[in-house]
Design brief:
4 helices, 3-stranded mixed β-sheet, 52% helix, GMP Synthetase, Chain A, domain 3
């Protein structure tokens, strides 16, 4: 239990530090509007997967991930200096598509709601159409 709590605290700390690096220190022009959404670490703290969300089209997403992957050495060194651990974890980046999926679901719900309002049905099962 205590080990799991430590992992969760380190995940949150790495998420905060990575967010600061994206905001102030990573100057690669390929990296667009990137947000750190989550960090997952293994139980032995040897590996950390940083999930990022990228605003923009498919090309922007691809170039941002390339920029992040080219900065892996810098990121790992900075994390090692800022987060005091016996071993600095191996870091990898993964695209978090959950925000896009949530946006897609929201659009579908709004579309269904819009159709429901347009095709308002009264108790007889026929469309309620008022003529003015």
């Amino acid at each position: 239990m205590a080990k799991q709590l430590r992992v969760e605290k380190l995940q949150e700390l790495i998420k905060q530090e990575m967010s600061k690096m994206l905001l102030k220190e990573l100057k690669d022009p390929r990296i667009g509007f990137v947000t750190v959404t989550d960090v997952e670490m293994t139980g032995d703290l040897r590996e950390a997967k940083i999930y990022v969300s990228v605003m923009g089209g498919e090309e922007q997403v691809k170039s941002s991930l390339e920029g992040l992957n080219s900065a892996l050495g810098f990121v790992r060194r900075e994390i090692g200096q800022r987060v005091r651990l016996r071993f600095t974890p191996e870091i990898s980046f993964a695209l978090d598509t959950s925000l896009d999926y949530g946006d897609h679901i929201q659009k579908l719900l709004l579309q269904v709601e819009g159709e429901k309002n347009v095709n308002h049905v009264d108790g007889s099962g026929e469309a309620n159409q008022s003529h003015e």
